[in-house]
Amino acid sequence: MHPQEWMSVESPGLYCKPADIYIDPMQPVAQAIVTHGHADHARSGHDTVYASDDTIAIMHTRYGEEMAKNTHGLAMGEIKQFGKKDDPVLISLHPAGHILGSCQVRIEYRHQVLVISGDYKRRPDPTCDLFEILPCDVFITEATFALPVFRHPPIEHEIAKLLSSVAVFPDRCHLIGAYALGKCQRVILGLRNAGYSKPIYLHGALIKLCNLYQSRGIDLGELLPVSDVDDKKLLAGEIVIAPPSALADRWSRSLPKLRTVMASGWMQIRARARQRLVELPLIISDHCDWPELLQTIEEVNPQEVWVTHGREDALVHQSTKMGYTTKALRLIGYDDEDETG
Amino acid sequence: MQAFSNLLEQLYYTSSHNAKAALIIDYLRNTPDPDRGWAIAAIAGTLRFDFFKRNTIKQLILERVDPVLFDLSYDYVGEMSETVAHLWPDSHQHNRPLPSLGELVEQFTHASRQAIPDMLIDHLNSMNAAQRWALIKLGTRGLRVGVSARSVKQILARYGDKPVAEIERLWHGIAPPYIELLAWLEGKAAPPDISNKITFSPVMLSHPLSLEEVLPWQGERWQIEHKFDGIRVQLVIKGAEKALFSRNADDISHTFPDLLEQVSVDAVVDGELLVMHGVDVAPFNDLQQRLNKKKPTKKLMETHPAGLVAYDILELENRSLVDLPLEKRRTYLLDWVKRQNTSRVQLSDILPADSESELRSLHQHASDNLAVEGLMLKRVDSIYTPGRPKGQWFKWKREPKLVDAVIMYAQRGHGKRSSYYSDFTFGAWQGETLLPIGKAYSGFTDEELKKLDNWVRRNSIGRFGPVREVKKELVVEVAFDAVHPSSRHKSGVAMRFPRINRIRWDKPANEADTLENVVGLIET
Hints:
The structure holds 2 protein chains of 2 kinds.
Chain A: E1 7-10, E2 13-16, E3 21-23, E4 31-33, E5 46-51, H1 53-63, E6 68-73, E7 79-84, E8 87-95, E9 103-109, E10 112-116, E11 138-143, H2 155-168, E12 173-177, H3 183-193, E13 200-202, H4 207-215, E14 223-225, E15 239-242, E16 258-263, H5 270-275, E17 280-282, H6 290-300, E18 304-310, H7 312-321, E19 325-328
Parallel strand pairs in A: 3-4, 4-5, 5-6, 10-11, 11-18, 12-15, 12-16, 13-14, 13-15, 16-17, 18-19
Antiparallel strand pairs in A: 1-2, 2-3, 7-8, 8-9, 9-10
Chain B: H1 2-13, H2 17-30, H3 35-44, H4 54-62, H5 67-77, H6 80-87, H7 101-110, H8 116-125, H9 129-139, H10 149-160, H11 164-171, H12 179-185, E1 207-208, E2 222-228, E3 231-238, E4 241-246, H13 257-260, E5 267-277, E6 280-281, H14 284-288, H15 298-303, E7 306-316, E8 319-320, H16 326-338, E9 345-347, H17 356-366, E10 372-379, E11 393-397, E12 401-412, E13 421-430, E14 433-440, H18 446-458, E15 460-464, E16 467-470, E17 475-480, E18 482-485, E19 493-496, E20 499-504, H19 515-519
Helix pairs in contact in B: 1-2, 1-9, 2-10, 3-7, 5-6, 6-9, 10-11
GO molecular function (chain B): DNA ligase (ATP) activity
Protein name (chain B): DNA ligase (ATP)
Catalytic activity (chain B): ATP + (deoxyribonucleotide)n-3'-hydroxyl + 5'-phospho-(deoxyribonucleotide)m = (deoxyribonucleotide)n+m + AMP + diphosphate
């Protein structure tokens, strides 16, 4: 049976009727599958949550142990049966390459397969497994950076920009705005891989999640809370990471000779960077750029492509031109702006 | 070209003026002629022609990118050069050496129109996105990196450790790539020879008056004039050539051809530019219609004719007058004005005041004329000294007008103030609703700014991009010089020089002024 008969967009989000389950619902529901831990996909208050073990750990860290009545950790590729016994819906999670614990959702029902990519990227990321190509009838792709102007440079290139700035401005404190989950840890690992071994200083809002990464075996090196530094002048020449909202806020006033840096895919657009008074934009994204979105559609090679949150128009146009039946799924409430880019 | 592109990239993301100056000075030190002079020209906006047209760029990109995707991208990015820079297909020829800035200028200057597209394609192919952006900005003269022509002159002065007035004096007599100028700044050559060129002479400025400085009043020592509410200009006539400069040495001749074609007799004249109907001088709002219009329409020039109220003269028929006292210069000025065959030039009248009370009364009535914003007091023995010499010239503005308005929105400032909410939009009541009537970002002390910032953060109720909407509870006393009717604002009024005079922490918002009160302050 065609997925459009059994998948629909309801007010809490994407809904699979025969399994009675929502994917990344925005409001509390009875059964939810959560693709990854970003706040616009993972909400608290559901009765039962199915997700990867890492995602459940992230949700516990963010929302506390009471974030859902029941949680079920699913291993990558493990098939879980929903719906009626004689008319089952088979659901499994597969790596999406977006952040720690991020998954695609594969749903098979009455001989048709639908894959929900969640947020994903194709570049290697030491904190998660590579995106897996899953053959399917309908592929639901995100479209965060779905315009041909978006072409992300290699992360090594952007980290080199940062380190060269630290060398040129040794008396300035480099404050990097980076989303607390995923981007922050990726920037830290990028620095470590480039041989930067000094302590990296963190805004209080980033500490719990960095600790979680460390406890799950990802070595981020020496991290120190900014609040533990009594004499803030000592931060001259150091690297500090904070959530983007703290970049030009009161919190940053105590830091010496600030150089504001921001790590985000949006930094490719000059005006975006300048709006935020960013002096050093780093184009580091946890999403696909335009060529990677098109490459993924070709490799998955589904019958149909459905496009969700982001710049749907361009991807719908291009995917149609590539010969795929394509439509835009208007899902509201997903945050495609700064924070998770 | 690499060095130029790097410079632009860094300037673009740097907000402090000092840091920008440091970047430019570093570039000047490390870049050969003529490249660095062309870079200066590109930044200061003194390149004489476009290398290529925006339309050529658009054609080229549409041959390479799906038009639907181009439109969607352009919509999103909001700017043509950057859209094209990102969309241009990467040909991975980045290892090919790029031409220098000087070579680029040379090539585009001498290329035939038919050869330009191919040349452009070739260059864009061998560049990365940042370099493509720099080339397109350079070639279409659309460079905006937050460095004005005025700042460029200041930076050059700093580079050569010379007074900025010297650079301003030379500026309009020299042309890119400024090889002689840079050599002089580096102490390697004499200043460029500008004796046969139309140039700007740095102007003499006044101090705000505090009355005790001119008391006890001795009328015979002072020349009193109206302070007209127009823009200060310098008119230069040298043979067939004529130019009009703003007081910051920007050449604004093209904006006011109607005035320039009427004046004659070689001279350098200091005066106020205004819209004038014969001898009747119109208020600033009328002049506003003429400002920043590079090519004014014939109709606009008829309805809003530009004129000059002349008040000083620096040079007449090749004789420099700056070392003469003001009262002597005045006789030469009279002579020059008499020889004009047009009513577009009027002499600034001398107003008599034999006693302090007469002086005060003059000040009180000065603004009965809407085109006048106060008095000028100049010592009759003052010689024409560029800059702001002490005790020579004073401006005595009329008392500002005041309204109590309610803060509606706040925005972060720039530079040092980037973490503070320091730009405020305020409104007046129309019935139960507030309508924005103006914006102010000055008038308060640093201490008050901290309090305002704190208040905004605690009383924020919404966000529109960088703008915060606040609870409509805080009243400020706004001072301003005048208010005019305006069809561009929903409230129908536009204020001149609004600033925050006082913060009325105590005053309830519903007691702030009504829009009707504000409209009542419009003078007609």
